[in-house]
Write a structure and sequence with these properties.
single chain, 309 residues, mainly alpha, MetI-like fold
């Protein structure tokens, strides 16, 4: 187990370094002057020179790269030039809770929708329940977030006025429902079909037939024997899709005007603020890799037969 974790840790570090390095050089390869983008073409030359120095753009590219990793190692991730005394880390810490809250709520909604639908479809294959779940899953996969979000806003916020609209600045559970449904619908669709196919495979195994022959109640056979052993591919999808939830939150946070890492990243891209973009990408990469590592560890809990050499 220790050697496995060590190998995964080294691989994860190299992945994060590679992704962040790629973003670092791509940002600087984009045509245009970020100083003029931030201050405007009519800004004074002294102001442009000051900002250029603050962003380290007056130094060679390899020096900028070294200074970036220096900021990463000291934990600041860089100091913001438009907010003196404020670091990228402080901005991230202020925005991370909202994004994590949205991602966890989306995952919860996806699980609440997918698990019952997937299990019900597997217990009655090719019935109206199975066909109905297939239609729901197809709709969830086919409808993009940038269309579903505005449609939900029109129906529930404008027409029915049942939930707050983004401009009302209402916080709490009511303001989280629509963004979570928008972000979790695609994941729910994937999990529904994965749960169905995995359950169908497990339900045909010998030990399930043995459990039925012993006279165990059907609910116990399904929940204790079948479902737990069918969760391995479901856990895999959950781990892989958590990173997708973080990146998908960029669009959803913009639609619903929610604070978070997504909005912070978009603002950094629009302003061509290299430090903010690099900090957000580093956080998303680290979270994605960390969740996948945790997913590997959860395998052993879900199925004790799994062992790592």
């Amino acid at each position: 187990m220790f050697s496995f974790l060590l190998r995964r840790l080294f691989a994860s570090v190299f992945v994060i370094i590679g992704v962040v390095t790629l973003v670092f050089f791509i940002l600087r390869a984009v045509p245009g002057d970020p100083v003029e983008s931030i201050l405007g073409e009519q800004a004074l030359e002294v102001d442009k020179a000051s900002l250029r120095e603050c962003l380290n753009l007056d130094r060679p590219l390899y020096v900028q790269y070294g200074l970036f990793w220096k900021d990463v190692l000291d934990g600041s991730l860089g100091h913001l030039c438009d907010e003196r005394g404020v670091t990228v880390r402080e901005r991230l810490v202020a925005n991370i809770p909202a994004t994590v809250q949205l991602a966890l709520a989306s995952m919860l909604i996806a699980l609440l929708l997918a698990m019952p639908l997937g299990v019900a479809a597997s217990l009655r294959p090719y019935s109206w329940v199975d066909n109905g779940s297939a239609v729901v899953a197809l709709l969830g996969i086919s409808i993009p977030n940038f269309w579903l979000g505005p449609m939900l806003l029109i129906v529930f916020s404008l027409m029915l006025q049942a939930l707050p609209n983004p401009g009302s600045e209402v916080l709490g559970l009511s303001a989280l429902i629509l963004p979570a449904v928008t972000l979790g619908s695609g994941l729910a669709a994937k999990l529904t079909r994965m749960t169905r196919s995995s359950m169908l495979e497990v339900l045909n195994l010998d030990y399930i037939r043995t459990a039925k022959a012993k006279g165990l109640p059907r609910w116990k056979v399904v929940s204790k024997h079948a479902l737990r052993n069918a969760l391995i591919p479901v856990v895999t999808i959950l781990g892989l899709q958590f990173g997708a939830l973080l990146t998908g939150a960029i669009v959803v946070e913009k639609i619903f005007a929610r604070p978070g890492v997504g909005m912070m990243l978009l603002e950094g891209i629009e302003a061509r603020n290299y430090m903010i973009v690099q900090g957000c990408v580093l956080f998303i990469s680290f979270t994605y890799v960390l969740v996948n590592l945790i997913t590997d560890l959860v395998y052993g809990w879900v199925d004790p037969r799994i062992r790592y050499d």
